[in-house]
Amino acid sequence: NRKVPTFEPGELIALMSAGAYGMVMATNYNSHPLPAEILIDGDQVQLARKRQTFQNLVEGEEG
Question: Which of 7, 16, 26, 37 fits as disulfide partner to 48, beta carbons 3.0 to 4.6 Å?
Fold first, then answer.
């Protein structure tokens, strides 16, 4: 268990190690868009996946 501060909407956090809980286990449960995913190798940072927008989430919905 880790103690973390209270976060405000719009703040960014970095989880440096999530074990088996990565994007492969992510869902859109309760219509929560998926976060961005970045790769860090030393001082190199690369965007692996863009943050999902609400528009991305509802694309293809009918009605």
Answer: 37
Among candidate residues 16, 21, 27, 15, the one with its CA nearest the CA of residue 52 = 27
Distance of CA 15 to the CA centre of its chain: 10
pLDDT in tens, the chain (63 residues): 878 899 999 888 887 777 666 777 788 888 888 888 888 899 999 999 999 999 998 888 887
Backbone φ/ψ region at 6: left (φ over 0), alpha (ψ -120 to 50), beta: beta
Domains of the chain, earliest start first: 1-63 (2.40.37.10)
Instruction: Please give the model's pTM, rounded to 2 decimal places.
Output: 0.59
